[in-house]
Amino acid sequence: MNVENLDIDERVKRVLKKRGIRELYPPQEEALKSGILKGDNALIAIPTASGKTLIAEITITNRLLNEGGKAVYLVPLKALAEEKYKEFKDWEEIGLKVAMATGDYDSKDEWLGKYDIIIATAEKFDSLLRHGSSWIRDVKILVVDEIHLIGSRDRGATLEFIITQMLDRAQIIGLSATIGNPEELADWLNAKLIKSDWRPVKLRRGVFYQGFVFWEDGKTDKFNSWEDLVYDAVKKGKGALIFVNMRRKAEKTALELSKTVRDLLSREEIRKLRELATSLEENPTNEKLARALLGGVAFHHAGLGRNERVLVEDNFRKGLIKVVVATPTLSAGINTPAFRVIIRDTWRYSEFGMERIPILEIQQMMGRAGRPKYDEIGEAIIVSATEEPSLVMDYYIKGKPEKLFSQLSNESILRSQILALIATFGFSEFRDIYNFLEKTFYAYQGKDPYLLEEKIRGIIYFLLENEFIDVTLDDKVKPLPLGLRTAKLYIDPLTAKIFKDALPKIEKDSNPIGIFQIISMTPDLTPLSYGRREIGMLEDEYYHLRDRLYLELDYENERKFFRALKTALVLNAWINEVSEGEIVEKFNVEPGDIYRIVETAEWLVYSLGEIAKVLNYPKDIIEYLRVLRIRVKHGIREELIPLMELPSIGRKRARALYNAGFKDLDSIRNARPSELLRVEGIGAKTVEAMLRYLGRDVKIVEKPKKGTLDYYLSP
């Protein structure tokens, strides 16, 4: 269908043409003719790269231009929010303002009211609903990207609550490539189902077994090893994406492959890859990544830092990095396709031992094969070491993705959401809460209503017992100050209870390691795991720090206790300015793990301070927690806090300034630029930015260094 024939605003057509879009794909045409442009709910279940986002964009922009109002586009990851934000910025040229909202769960963010399209993570939008942000009443369209995550144990219940809240208030558009029971989900949403197997790039799927690829069309190709599948793709000038089940395996495989792939690179590519490798910050994980990059290969997993993950994704898309070995995190919606996808593992470790990776996840990985505009065909190959290829083919390639089931029975999230219903949405009777829950996907799927009722009663009793809520004389429930603050902080009520119980000990003896132990024991922070070799070290640390810890070793929960202790030790090293590389080496963690726990810990230390305020603890305790939060955020000792106000200053530069005698803002404001330039890591642009911030407009002209061509040619 030609874009010209669409019954939409001419301004929308203009932007589409500017992007080079003149013809719609068949699923896009079907969706846009389904009633979605008239405000009908829609569930769009079509393959990766078939244009799901564009359907949502056209629907959103056309409706907002004609009717006004706002649209919210929900994504599961911050990285995906950033990607979608860049895509949607195109619409600003026709007057629609685009904003992105992630993180900071204790804010109404009323500034978002100035924007028309808001890209947000589900958790962020859930917190905005709780805060009663006034602009939400103007939301006319809610798009839920990767809606199949409603079946995810960790975030499914949050997504389900958001959709239930918005069902009667806005048009709902769900997007996914893999849903096992789309009819059921569409029926709950009262949505038109757009279901298709059409792809812009044909997908060829097969199983590699004992030297042969057995394709689903019955053909076979011979390759001596699965590694030859990688080298063959690179020789063809194509990229290969390999999925494995563990971080260590991703790193080891990338290093092994790089030895051979390097021989297939041009001199110019080797030069550029060397530049990439030398740009990485020094730590043990990045050292391995740098070695792999020199051979045109990279690994990608949650242990990498944010900058490194972006570097790998961007340069793989550009074609400089030829091969990426990834854990399944890369299959979760980030736009990183490849000509050939190779799935090395269909089993992974879990709490219960080895288990099959779900069909839904494997098919998400396979969906990464084939780059629109670059490939006419994409290839997805599952490697089988022991299972007959026909069995793997039947299960993963011909099999249907698992059905999605409500995760509302997740007690941690249910606890938080029931408190939110009472504290922020004004529900005052048990029957009101139950009636709301009857509108959920959980109730639609016919789960045992008595079991749900029993859970609700148990949670309400917990909230009453711990003074989050109270019961009035006319038998209505009402929130107490602790309940109101907990709901808006977006933490589990159990976390708030743990804080409440720990605060008398914190008041008696405030110290960082004890506080970090407490926050690491809460359900809101997933603590670091540890290996057998670390048990001795953790036991020694426990007996050494015992007087400063607020919780004694509980042998019945020994594993949980030592995971929390390890996390506390890492956070303590971080705020004492131990370098990232040293933390990685000493505690056997990776940069991405450090960033994850630091981000969560900062929020929990803030929340602990807010709970202390509600419970009327002394000002010195609240101030201690405020300072500790800043130290966690930046990874610094207390004396560096004043310097962190400056632009372009992180923990390393702040320490260098302090050690050079610049210990506060006045000393920097009054310094000569030449003095500041002598400080390690401080360049001309940083000096200009710092002094500009402090009210001095200085322009520094750098002289060429002696011994350079510029020096000899300068007048």
Structure report:
By secondary structure, this protein is of the alpha/beta class. It has five domains: 3-195, P-loop containing nucleotide triphosphate hydrolases (Rossmann fold, 3-Layer(aba) Sandwich); 202-397, Rossmann fold; 411-481, Winged helix-like DNA-binding domain superfamily/Winged helix DNA-binding domain (Arc Repressor Mutant, subunit A, Orthogonal Bundle), CATH 1.10.10; 493-635, Sec63 N-terminal domain-like fold (Orthogonal Bundle); 640-693, 5' to 3' exonuclease, C-terminal subdomain (DNA polymerase, domain 1). The chain is 47% helix and 13% strand. The chain is built from 31 helices and 19 strands. A hairpin with a 5-residue loop joins strand 18 and strand 19 (477-479). The longest helix has 24 residues, at 591-614.
In short:
The protein is 47% helix and 13% strand.
What Rg is obtained from the alpha carbons, in whole angstroms?
28 Å
Domain unit count: 5
Helical/strand content category: alpha/beta
The CATH architecture of the largest domain can be given as 3-Layer(aba) Sandwich
Counting DSSP E segments of at least 2 residues, the number of strands comes to 19
Biggest beta-sheet profile: 8 strands, mixed
Shape: globular
Q: Helix segment count? A: 31
How much of the residues is beta strand, in percent? Answer: 5-15%
Helicity range? 40-55%
The named CATH superfamily of the largest domain: P-loop containing nucleotide triphosphate hydrolases
Low-confidence stretches: 709-715
Question: Roughly how many Å apart are the termini?
Answer: 64 Å
What is the third-level CATH name, the topology of the largest domain? Answer: Rossmann fold
User: In CATH's first tier, which class of the largest domain applies?
Assistant: Alpha Beta
How do the strands of the widest beta sheet line up side by side?
10-9-8-17-14-11-13-12
Overall mean pLDDT stands at 93
